[in-house]
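Provenance and format

Records in this collection were gathered into a single text stream. Each protein contributes a sequence line and a token line. The two records reproduced below are adjacent in the stream.
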Amino acid sequence: MTKRSTKHSLILSALSLLLCASMLIGTTFAWFTDSVTSTGNIIKSGTLEVALEWAEGNLDPATTTWNDASDSTKPIFNNDLWEPGYTESKHVKISNNGSLAFNYMLRIVPNGAVSTLADVIDVYYFEDAKQLTRTDVETGEYLGTLTELFGTAKNISNTVKGTLYSKDDANGNPSSKTCTIALKMKESAGNEYQDLAIGSDFNVEVIATQLAYEIDSFDKDYDIAAPSPELPSALVRPLVDLGIDTTGSMIGADLGLINLDVGYQFEPTESYSDAQKSDYRYWHADFVVKADAEVPADSMALAGYYDAWCSLNNDKWVALTSDQEIAAGTEIRLVSSIAYVNYEEICNYGNDGIGFRCGAVDRTGENVGTTLTVEFRLYETLSAEEAIKQGYGNTTNVETGNYIVVGEFKYTFGGDYETLDDGTVLFNNDNGDVVLYDTQSATIVGGTYEVPEGVTTLGNYSLSYNTDIENVILPETVTTLGRAFDSSTSVKKVVLNEGLETIDSRAFKSTTALEEVIISSTVKTIADNAFQKSGIKNIVIPATVETIGETAFGASLIETITFEGNTSIQGYAFRGCTQLREVYLNGDDVTFIPSTLNGRNSCWFCNGESNNPNTSDIDFYVVNDTVAARVKTAMGAEANNTDVYVNGVPYNP
């Protein structure tokens, strides 16, 4: 059953502490006295600190190198040439580096979608640090395939668990545990497992919780209620059939029959009866979706299917779209937009081999290169008792704001990523375009960055955040700038390439350090907002530029601008340019196109924020009376305050 409730704000409660003082009344009798002082008293909280390390080969104390497993550059299992029969054996050491005893569990958990390659990777466990031969591997305790370990809440922790004591423990209790784990690819794996990868899609992790061991004034049971480290999990599998039906949907959008670009199934790994006994029983299950780039309005659809409520939706998938632009990084909760679904419910309806199914489609092709992240989360809720105490009534649907992630997948629309030796990240889409995706980690020498040859598109913000980049040179292959420099605080000079035809909207918006842009002879259009709020002071517009869009240089720091040809200038192109003083119009047929911005009269050039009299202090230098007259007309109410010179002579109509 799906539970619905009104969402409430969480109210923080305050506790008051009353301090009482008593007065001690003494007498005036004299007594012999003495004193003793207890020095060095300590009140200090203990530390719970667990370490995970790994090694391979013969464990010789004199020569063995233990690697820190938390170092992402040194994963425990790391090989990209798996083939039938290939085996990896690693020694794993868990250590207590703190002062408090703890219980621990070692487990292997998926870090994303589970490749079918995990179906043919067997996992063996040895209780100690055993030096193995190839024939020894299968003598260990067989834990199952990687997929089977991913798909059970008990996971490897069913076997690899124990207790570790303080490294300073005086009773000889162990402060570390060393075991051996081996992975082997089944000899029976066929050709269907070629060219697959698990990659970095699983984690080996240790979870430690307090042990009822340290003693206070009464006993050692004060921390006996420390929670179990076992967490809910979900098996994540890619969908094979991506055709879905939303026809007649009563929830969300009716998009008819559509094909998803990507789809995944999330299947809970705990039974309904176990979930009812779990501390997470009433936590809310939800899908949370976010994109790493702006999603244009009506360009993407998210879709989901869950028996418990799709059975009430004509048995159709629920599709959600937005008629509003969605900013990059915006988190969207899907299930809670319709109803609350508790953890026990997903374990009841979600263990049918179907589980939750969800996916996405780029409807317009505008999201190529955008990476979508979908997390399957559980949101903590107050117990009914606590909800009553806090004034919410008898409910288990009040969220605290805390959550855990039990499954995740990521998908990039239209291609894949490539990281170059210098740290540049490219995106190669399915249409053959090469997108400059990210330069934050790129190595920059002398402040100059040359965009790699072959790049056709500069991704949004791709050159914005590496503050070592001051000068940028583009190869002739670039056809689209996008918003590559938007909000950069370091880029000073950009040389645009021959072959580029458009300086896109917001390409240089808010580039506060910008000093120079050399526009190539092939550029025809400078789009709306292209240099808005930028720091550029001087620019030359080649004769090949046909149009400058609305607010193209609005609110920028431009001081001098030179037009070499007969460019059409749209209204508000230089509105609010407080430093603008000189405009050179070297074409004999320059035109001014009225703006439709907010339905108001156009203001092509002004030093202020509005088209008011006496706000213009700009000198225009033109080549004939025709253009001079057009300038006066364009300046409107400010015409009398505008000086226009025709070949150096003041214009007097």
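Adjacent record:
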Amino acid sequence: MSLLFRGPNSEIVPAEVEHAWSERHGLIGFFTSVDHKRVGMRYIATSFFFFFVAGLLALVMRVQLAKPDAGVVGPEVFNQLFTMHGTTMIFLFNTPVLAGFGNYLLPLMIGARDVAFPRLNAFSYWIFLFAGIFIYISFVVGKAPDGGWFAYVPLSDKAYSPGINMDFWGLGVIFVGISTTVGAVNFVVTVFKMRAPGIAVNQLPIFVWSLVGMAFMIIFAVPVLTVAAGLLEADRLFGTAFYVPGRGGSVLLYQHLFWFWGHPEVYILFLPATGMVSAIIPVFSRQRLAGYIWVASSLVAVAFISFGVWVHHMFATGVPAAAMGVFSAASLIIVIPSGIQYFAWIGTMWEGRPRLEPPMLFALGFLVIFLLGGISGVMVSSMPFDWQATDTYFVVAHFHYVLNGAVVFPIFGALYFWLPKMTGKMLSARLGRWSFWIMLIGFNVSFFPMHILGLRGMPRRIFTYHPGLGWDWLNMVASIGGGVFGLGTGITLFNIFWSRKHGAEAGDDPWGGDTLEWATSSPPPDNNFTAVPIVSSRHPLWDQDPLPRGVSGPAPETESQGLLGAERRQTPVTAGLDALSETSSTVPVPTAVPFVLALGIAFVFVGLLVSAKLVMGIGIVAGMAGLTRWAWRTEVDRP
């Protein structure tokens, strides 16, 4: 079937609409903005700052391990480095950066003018930012967490970690969990209530499906991690004994709670990453995604099955064999829906005419790395092999292929794909190709030898090793590869800054995209859509040319669809599987209330850390003031 590619067709924003949606500039605008696009960009920028910090920590570790008995850092500093590297990548980069893309793109993709709860959205960002600052202050005071990013007890309790190092970790994880959870609730409500008229459930972009799956998994998984960290902090700060066996507690309870979150977390990251790939491949293959229903169903299946595999992280802990058999089987079954997506991507490219632009290259790199990471994942799902590989560098290689390669590569592809829409400037394709190939080579040179190191018996979490064990040259190769990979990521960072001044104008739809975000200007206006699009296709920009637009009518369910609704800061609310018009929702004006509330919560956590009642009191007062103002101010007026 031939496809219709549209040209620039963005709306002209009237002055009245621009005034109604405009936000203040400078510091006041920074602290009061509730626009989902600004919040999304802040998430992405802040997450990438933490990504490069975590990368520097990893490079220091690889320099230490490049040679036997190296003295670059000692064991205490090394423990802090690998704890903070893992904590940063999991809690401060992977999940938040995906949430950032979701924040920016989700309302645009479903034809909404903002998310369902814009103030809650801003609040989630401020909590994330303050949580990251809170955790990294530990380096400033010389008390960085040192018990691993997993914080296994009893090594992380007061008896074995008496300082405040692990309190930074425990309280920080609870802190950032607030941001993740409220953000997920916002995504769910936005998708199910804020879709433009006509966007039926079976017409949602696959990236939106992946965000829905991620959000539901977060809602069920992250509170369990919050409980795990909360009980740990109760043991540490208040002398309880949830994880103290001699007083009736259980160390395995912590592992069950942690990994009940920890393995779904892999798929919390994996689902949006695959959603990005499912958005990129059809556009650059000039072909509709093969097996749309199968791909959407596989995302839902992965979300469900992922909650039944956590015990495969605990095969060496003495869990009964019958239980291990069930979890081993579930760990193998989850490969099936993942494989469905893989074949859908191959089928799409097979029927299309792929263009090897940087976004497509990163998507293809993901396919290779995901395949290798998936194969090693099947291997460790087998109990006999897992018993041999547990706590070796084979596991380090496996989860980096999954969490780094199979997530970071789609994220970089998404940068090259959607950043022109966000900034209005194209990134350099030449630099993008250089970045991709250097990252791909560096990644595999760094992490593939770790499989061999693990099979040769090199344990995880060691800061040095003696010569003559057969590990020397493999560690040197891995360290060189790590440096090469870091160089590749740095090229993209340079590309982003270079493009802001020297990049070509992107235009509305530089790639010939098929979803609604490409129907706006680049960057999109504050109100997203002056007249809300009326959609009747999974590929509205390919099938509906020109794109139909709504008109404001007298009834509540239609008054927000046209120019009048845009002037009133309204967005449609729809219901049902077919997105039938239900009513209109008013988008709140900019306000500093989310910032004040998040700052108050930050003071509470600092007070808990240093046992300062005054600091906690200040935080409680600020938080209550923010909550009161949040609930009190419901009218919509200009600030």
